[in-house]
Amino acid sequence: MVYKKKKVIVVGGGFAGLTAAHRLLKENYEVEIIEKRAVFGGKWSAWKDASGDWIETGLHVFFGAYEEIFDLMKELNIYDRIHWKEHVLTYTLDAGERFEFRTIKLPSPFHLLPTVFKNHYFNWMEKLSLAKALGPILFGSRRYYDEQDKITYQEWHRKHGIADKMLSKMFLPMTLALKFLAPKDIAAKIVLDVSGTFLRKNSASRIGFLKGSPDQHFTAPLLQDIVNRGGQVVNEHKLSKVNLNSDDSIASLLVETPDGKQITKTADHYLFALPIHNLQKVMPESWLKYSYFQGLKQIKSVPVVTLHLWTDKAITDINNIIFSPDGNIPVYADMSLTTPDYQLKEQSRFQFVVAPADELIDLPDDEIVSHVWRGLQGIFPETAPKAQITKSVVVKVPRSVYWPAPGTDKFRVPQKTPVKNLTLAGGYTKQRFYDSMEGAVRSGNRAADAIIAAHKIE
Ligand SMILES: Cc1cc2nc3c(=O)[nH]c(=O)nc-3n(C[C@H](O)[C@H](O)[C@H](O)COP(=O)(O)OP(=O)(O)OC[C@H]3O[C@@H](n4cnc5c(N)ncnc54)[C@H](O)[C@@H]3O)c2cc1C
Question: Most buried residue, 4, 22, 98, 320, by most Cβ within 10 Å?
Fold first, then answer.
């Protein structure tokens, strides 16, 4: 078996694009990556601010269920940069109330038993209502999950008689953490499918944090490997137009340079690893005759805000991810505890996911900070009132991950497209882990597989 050396242009330097580039270089392809921003890593990027602090696009954690991202990290010799945390999910509520979900080392599904028995926050009727509904979550067939794409998670929850308190106190922060969407705005399928993945295997929901910034501890080693293998890496260049041949295949790309010039780029094959809204912007009209692209046009994206907040005193001692159903900080962490490079002495350095963000994203930064700060006073009534904010940075992403609204899953597509020299990658393309770090890496691997298969010659 031989492979003919071909050139692939990868557009989009997030983890889907970078993974695909890495794979293709290993298969002896010539690869050029074009990224519009100064930094690589896309939704999982980081940059230093004027005072030298790393600012991240958003709070990112690994789950034990991930596989292909770990394979990539092991290959790059950076797997040890993940710091695994105690296997417990802590919920923090208004007026300082708390509850936890802990799992133990028993074969699935028995590892979940303490979760049901030991939790003191929900009463027995409420816990029983959830226990009765666990069957379809744990043992649902793929077909069953697919059918649940027609309804919202809130509808599914109520249809199965699960207590409403579990919806507002347990599932609300979960779906907001998962896709920054409330249970009424997200399809039941993704919630059940992801919950099933996490619940079936004991270690699947274990959470890990990177040692420090993703830029330093993942993107940089990955980019270095790409460059070492001969890959060309071009940042601050934006794909602005796709020129076509008469058969709808790509003739060339028009790319905008930092000084506003348009240059033309050509290759044997093109891989677009763009967020869905950016893909929609550059998709030529004539591709809309294919149902593949018609569906992609329908997919929307979710807004999200991240708040980085430094305080002069330590507010929490929880060295893990933290959930909260009250207010607009469904998931957060004190990075000064979770992330060794961000360690501070007796101070906190929070990273909050602020969601749902549709009503908050247009507020001035100081109003967002005040809103979150007020919520934090209620969650930590003992410590927060004694602390002062020393620094805050707001990062707004108006279109982040794709929106898994009911009826959207049918629009997700395989990486191979009807256009003969185009392949797609990204969380919205089909793979089991949706729009996540693992999903991005998987989609990059599947896209590389599709390109390699297309060019394989006997
Ligand atoms: C706040 C937040 C928190 C998250 N937390 C987690 C988490 O804890 N765990 C988890 O697994 N996942 C998490 N995710 C999801 C995860 O970040 C994404 O699923 C993943 O990074 C998507 O990677 P991607 O390569 O598909 O897309 P992207 O990262 O969006 O990469 C696409 C790239 O294309 C570039 N681009 C766009 N238009 C053009 C153009 N015209 N020309 C050239 N380049 C262009 C962009 O600049 C970007 O770099 C989170 C996401 C967000 C927003």
Answer: 22
